[in-house]
Amino acid sequence: STLVLATRNAKKVPELRAILGEAGLDIEVRGLDGYPDAPDVPETEPTFTGNALLKARAIAGHTGLPAVADDSGLRVDELNGMPGVLSARWSGRFGERSGDRDAANLELVLDQLADTPPERRGAEFVCAAALVLPTGEEHVVEGVFRGSLTTEPRGTNGFGYDPIFVPEGETRTTAEMSPEEKNAISHRGIAFRALARRIRELG
Ligand code: ITT
Description:
The chain is an alpha/beta fold. The chain is built from five helices and six strands, in the order βαβαβαβββαα. It has one domain (2-202): Maf protein (Alpha-Beta Complex). It has helices at 12-22, 48-63, 99-112, 179-185, 187-202; strands at 2-5, 28-30, 67-76, 122-132, 138-149, 165-167. α1 (12-22) packs across α5 and α4 (179-185) packs across α5. The protein is globular and about 50 Å long. The chain binds inosine 5'-triphosphate. This is dITP/XTP pyrophosphatase. The active site is at residue 71. Substrate binds at residues 7-12, 72, 159-162, 182, 187-188.
């Protein structure tokens, strides 16, 4: 069988493919590359779950195939959970999908925490993953990844806030880990593995 992952982020497709494979599921995962007319769904909901469902519903409707979408972001304790669902757009550099945008977002968080000591630099990545079937049936799961924020960016792997995020019990940032190491413990890894279990239960 086939499912479509509703993302334009090229790093997410191989990750879901690998996780479904490890779960023993023989499912072809397609990105949106083959669907140039797929709607670009604005993330207008106030929650990760709401946005993941919006995207998955739109792509299931467009393709007629089961669709998975995820919405994710960083919640910073000291900033009362911000940037949260605004993580991709935090610095106001709307619409950019370049490393520049990521760098601007990360610098803004570091600036806002300039006076915050190490013991109050806690943060978590959150990922909601939604599966919508052509029948309209919907499933949502969530993954949370606790850690703390550095004062300087370190590492070149990953994307977004990875250069400033150190997982609980680690000394390296997630940008200093291999993709496999990060996926084994990350919010998206947790959510996608939970989704794989859900798919297996569906048969
Ligand atoms: P799609 O919406 O097309 O899937 P996206 O990259 O914009 O792609 P999100 O809407 O889930 O994905 O936005 C997540 C933002 O949160 C992302 O731009 C990063 O700034 C941050 N983020 C999420 N997961 C992250 C991770 O694993 N490492 C670093 N930053 C992350």
